[in-house]
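Onboarding guide, step 5: your first structure request.
Type a short instruction followed by the sequence, for example:

Predict the 3D structure of this protein.
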Amino acid sequence: MMLNVRRPNLGFCILLAVCIAVACGGMLRGSAVLAADDAGRDNADDAGRYLVGCGTADITGSPVGIKMLGYVRPDQITEGLHLRQFARTFVIAQADSQRRLAIVTTDLQSVTHSLVLSVLERLHEALDDTYRLDNVVIAATHTHAVPGGYWHYAADTPVGMPFNPEYYDAIVDGIVASIVQAHQDLRPGRIRIGTGETVRAGAQRSRLAYLKNPEQERNAYPADIDTGMTLLRFEVDDHPIGILNWHAVHPTSMSFNNKLISSDNKGYAAYAFERTQQAAQADGHRFVAAFAQSNCGDVTPNLNLKGAGPGADEFESTRIIGQRMADAAQQIFASASEELRGPIDFRHAYVDMGNVTVDAVLTHDGPQKTVPPAYGYSFAAGSTEDGGGQPMFREGMLKTDLLIEGMARTLVPLPEPSEEMRRGHQPKPILLAVGAAEPSAVPRVLPIGVARIGQLALVIGPAEYTTMSGRRFRRAIKKVLPDVSHVVVAGYAGDYCGYVATYEEYQAQHYEGASTLFGPWTQAAYQQEFARLAADMAAGRPSTAHAPPLEVRGRVRPTSLGTEYDLPPEDSQFGDVVRDAETSYARGDRAEVAFWTGNPQNGFRPQRRYAAIERQGGSGWHEVARDGDWEVRCRWSQPKTNARGRDRRLAAHQFAVRWDIPADAEPGSYRVRHFGVYRAKADGELHAIETESRTFEVD
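The system replies with structure tokens like these:
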């Protein structure tokens, strides 16, 4: 339901199968009214005295057997691990009041409102009402190379993704753990803010639609994408403990052909920055680097605009784009001098985005209304710049096709849109009338927010906002909060509901416009509601809200990870070496080793270590790299010969470890170790596997 379709040519039937999952995914309307808590309470300027804390936790999903989320390819099933997934949190508290804000950045494709509710319930058990809907921001980086299985939507449909409670709980546990860490880490500190430019880290992937925006508006900006980065540097005793930055680029450097878990270019940027800073830390305290997402709806990292580049392959492209972000962050980190000072404040509201009356001041054509959600034809075309494209669809489709409509109604169990709904979405020809279902087949009551830390304001929303949409939001907030000098759009936060293109971009009906669900006035409606929350903040009054979304947890049938047992390999034992290391390697070479192992879904936990590279030293063996490090790739496979005459699901796996030996590796004796499990048929119990390659020399 929340999936952006940048996909290869799989044919109309597969496309509509994906659409069925989208259409059946949403569940439901809301039923109660929530006002922003603590509105107007304790607004005194504290002159910049903050408590700051940081935390991080592993939320890596199952590396085998789970459909990946993002491209929605039925054949893109996880079979390995490259870069791990993390939840990274910063908590900022007013030193002389109870006001605080927790900002969480997750290496997920998207966040769901159900996840947010589960996290808050767990936090309430431990910390009462310290953290609530209005002062916790949980956002996704939007990487397309991670497992699904944590969405409740579409889980019970034939083509939907099974709901895996173990993975869902692991994500909740990780986010909670990172917030609790940051909460316990709170100490008097400073927050310095800086801005800078990234160099060739993204490109406009929908330029024809962007050019529909007024020329005068476009001329106010130096580029057709936002190349800027806003960064917060957190310090305790004048010593940096972490950074949080926002920059707009899609994490789609890893393509739809990839089957290894990866946090993509933003994950690499965080990984590289943290390694550099951790090495420089003298006190051993953790350093947390969060590369958060902004208004990247029409920004691709694939600089050749054909689903690839700038590297020779997707791994190199991920590293290059990630390093460019890390380099920009490093420059801002080194030079940031402006200190955030002033109050912490926040507003949160649920808004029925399918029923917002937009004021004439924004429409220039009298009051206008948003409409119940629907996808257009060009939604099925996908973004060709990120690898999309279907033979029956193209970007810019503006006319209804009776053949397509007939096939869609046959294959997708949705009501036909009313004439009023069709008029409300014009010029979009409706492919999937998800809002015609009762209740709506996708969420239409959505969480939005505005938060403030001194002279910084955050615009918090659950969508993929285009470049110009974000610019309009920032201008609107600055008008309402004139004493705020920095405004950041924090997208992919709190939930997910597709794209938001401007009214002008919507007319072009490119992929982004066709995926703008609530009609041509969607962007204006968001702008109006964000400005309303900011005005409430400025006036010190509470913000009213529509009814919240209906509770959807517990409404789907869970599918547990793992198998009943693992069959041992024929003529071998679990832990046996299948392919051993060479006796020696030069620095810069590649070492590859494989072992027999069980299904890693059995006994799943995100922190599990699967592989380690160890070097022999004076006091024994010492780990120098492990799975999740850039130079290590891990892949599981089930050889067909091993499954002959057996249940393929239960067959033993081969676990292959590839280590690209760094050019600066110390000479010496090394080995590759594997840590796995298998479930025994005799007793159904888990048994640990610890095994190793031969010792080899690196010189």
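Each response can be followed by summary notes, for example: Confidence is low (pLDDT under 50) at residues 1-47.
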